[in-house]
Amino acid sequence: MKTHRTLWLVFLILAFCSCSKSPETLVRGGYDEKEMDAAITRARSEVDSFIAEMSKGNATDFAVKVPIQDKEETEHFWLTDVVYHNGKFEGVIGNDPGMVTNVKMGQKWTVKKSEISDWLFMRDGKMHGNYTIRPLLKTLSEEEAARYRSILANP
Fold first, then answer.
1. What is the Cα Rg of the chain in Å?
2. Residue 14 and residue 24: Cα distance in Å, rounded?
3. Which of 44, 80, 103, 124 has the fewest CB atoms within 10 Å, counting from its CB?
């Protein structure tokens, strides 16, 4: 369990969603937007299998990624400690914002199942889901990309 938490924390620190006021890891471009759109579509199309996995209890670190808009900016955040009921996910914002100002880390957030942009969970040291990281691998150093590929269940 501690290994999963460690991997999860490393992921949150390195993920393309923000980590601080002006995060070095915030990616505003450099990836194929069509690939990213396809990744979001895939995550949404498979969200019911994610919900089924949540109910089985044989995995850890369930999270969903949500787009949050503030004026003209949209930033995607991982919600941690997620639960699902009545067609919605509830969780807490898992990182500090880098572009938007209307949320903060640790804030409770609710999102409709149809509005998520991704999902993930850990099982047997492998990360399942997290389809939106794949288009971003091209923006990372070879070493960093290899690190992600080594923990992705289906790189």
1. 14
2. 9
3. 124
| 27 in a structural domain | no
Query: In what order do the strands lie in the sheet containing 73-85?
Result: 108-112, 88-93, 73-85, 60-70, 118-123, 126-129
> Taking the model in full, what pTM does it have?
0.82
Tally of structural domains, the chain: 1
* Cα separation, 110 vs 93, whole angstroms: 10
Under a CB-based contact definition with an 8 Å cutoff, are residues 75 and 67 in contact? yes
Q: Look at residue 143 and give its three-state secondary structure.
A: helix
Confirm whether 77 is domain-assigned: yes
pLDDT of residue 147 exceeding 90: yes
C-alpha 127/C-alpha 7 separation (Å) is 9
Where do runs of H (alpha helix) occur along 57-123?
none
CA 111, CA 19: separation in Å to the nearest integer? Answer: 21
Q: What is the pLDDT of residues 96-121, one digit of tens each?
A: 888 899 999 999 999 999 999 999 99
Range of 127's domain? 2-22+32-151
